[in-house]
Amino acid sequence: MLLESVQVNGINNIKITYYMDCNMRKDHGFTFIELLITTLIIGIVVAIAHVVGLETLKKIEAHVTTMRLESFLKSARTYALLHHQALTICGSQGVNCDNQWSTGILLLTDSNRNGVVDGSDRILEYIPLNLKAATLSWRGFGGSRLVIESFGTTFAGNGTFTYCPISHNPR
After folding, report:
1. N or C: which end of the chain has fewer CB within 10 A?
2. What does each C-alpha distance from 123 to 6, 42, 94, 109, 151 come to in angstroms?
3. Taking phi first (over 0 means left), then psi (-120 to 50 degrees means alpha), and beta for anything else, what does residue 113 get?
4. Nearest alpha-carbon partner for 98 in 112, 108, 83
C-alpha cells in the first residue's frame, strides 16, 4: 500500500516512495524454467534409481537361482542314495527333458536314460525357474542331462552350470 510519494526537484530528480508494507509484491507459483529444471532433476534421479534397481534385481535373481540349484542337486543326490536309484536331472518345461534350463529343472527316474517319462519312469520333482534376466545351461560329458547314479555320484557327468545375464555375452 502506497503511503506517500514525494519527488524532490533540484537534486538530480530523486523520487522517494514510501510503502507501508515492503512485501507488497508477492510471487505466486513457479516460473517455467524452475519447473523445467525441477522436472529434469527428478527425471535424472528416477533414471539412476531405475538402473540401480534393475542391477539389484539381477543380482538377487542370480543368487536365488544358484541357491535353488545347489539345494536341488543336494536333495537329488540324497534321494538317489536313500532309494538306491539312478536319477536324471535336466532342463525342462515340465514334462520331459528338453534342455530348457532357464524355464525349469526336472528330476525324474529314467530307467532307459532317454530323458522321456515312459514305462516305469516318474517325475519326482519339478522346479520352475522362469529366468527373466539370465539364461541357465548345463554342459557336461554326459550331454544335456545330468545323471546321478544310485550310489550318489555322476557317471561321465562332470560339467558346468552356466548362469549368464542376458545383457552380457558369455565367453
Report:
1. C
2. 100, 52, 9, 7, 20
3. left
4. 108
Q: Which three cell numbers stand for residue 73?
A: 542337486
Q: Is the pLDDT of residue 72 over 50?
A: yes
155: nearest Cα among 99, 87, 105: 87
CB 135 within 8 A of CB 164: yes
Q: Are 125 and 150 in contact (CB under 8 A)?
A: no
For residue 60, how many C-alpha atoms fall within 13 Å in the half-sphere facing its CB?
A: 6
3-state SS, 106-134, equals: EEEECCCCCCCCCCCCEEEEEEECCCCCE
Residue 50 C-alpha cell reads as: 531405475
Taking Cα atoms as reference points, which of 129, 75, 70, 132 lies closest to residue 100? 129
Helices marked H in 31-150 — which ranges? 32-83
pLDDT digits (tens, 9 = 90+) for 28-59: 778 889 889 999 999 999 988 888 888 888 88
Nearest to 90 by CA among 74, 65, 75, 72: 72
pTM: 0.67
Amino acid type, 63 = H
